[in-house]
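pasting for ref
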Amino acid sequence: MVGSPKHMLARLRSRKLELGLGVRVTVAAFSALAIATALGLKLPLWAVLTSIIVTQMSVGRSLKATRDYLAGTVGGAIYGGALAILIPHSGEGALLAVAPLAFIAAINPSLNVATVTAIIVLLVPTMSHVSPLASAIDRVLEVAVGALTGLLVSFLVLPSRAHSQMRTSAARVLELIAAALDELLAALTRGRDNDALHQLQDGIGQALVGLNATGAEAERERAAHLSSGPDTGPLLRTLLRLRHDLVMIGRATVVPLPIDLQARLAAPLKKISEAVTAYLRASAATLRSGNGAPAIWPVQAALRDYAAEVAALRGEGLTRGLPADGAERFFALGFSLEQMRQNLKDLERCVAQWSDAPAVADGSKEED
């Protein structure tokens, strides 16, 4: 039943990251308000808002948000305070002076808060009758309290490491690649569903963009000695190369193979599809669980069988009658599958690094 407690519990479990973020944001907001009030800060609101802003989905992202927000606040406070002290101004005319900060923020979006801080420092003295220096100091203190509170909460309350998120995100990319490859290879014998392929390819692109961002956060954690996981670079590069392999295979499978070639290659292509997609999905499961990496020998065997059948077709002269564009696509497919074989070997090494157990021995001789 859709609305049953069991179903609701399952949906909540699938959203553990989001629930954890909700808890952290709430704790950070209450903590920042309590600390700012205890310290007697003039505007505790800014401490609360800052704590919410810097409390992010992962510790690595919180580190970046805290660094950017503090840097922008200090820079904006110094600029606004100096401007208020050195250049006489009154009312809204002071806002024209923040144009240089807006220009800098347009070049470096991580400094967006500098413009906001400068405006506050310039306008608060005219509203609350405090000195520009006091306004700048108050703003920096309020933001510092909020930023440090949010960062500490990210470390201590249901902490979420980007390295863990990297496992899940990379596994999702592998599953999408497996689905797209299955569709592409099947297209050689039955035609292809372009709408389904475009949806899969778009999904892979979006997933890779998110994965790159998560990888950058994971590397920040490693640099701060908050994580001891493996380097994310090799895995990211390997997934990107596999995506390029899909693009090449997609160009080679625009139209089905000629009927006589289909009869000979349908079985080897099906074997490749089954072996590679199974390996990709097993690798995804390994990334999620940390269990031993799957064996790659079925993939190697399937690709060898396909190469042998292609060699037999060429020896019999069945490829000589292909039109120029058809021959180009046919041989491009073989090249693309060979590239994928090499990239899957790289994936095997990457998955082994991210797993907690050694790879499964295949008991057969492999060719590199």
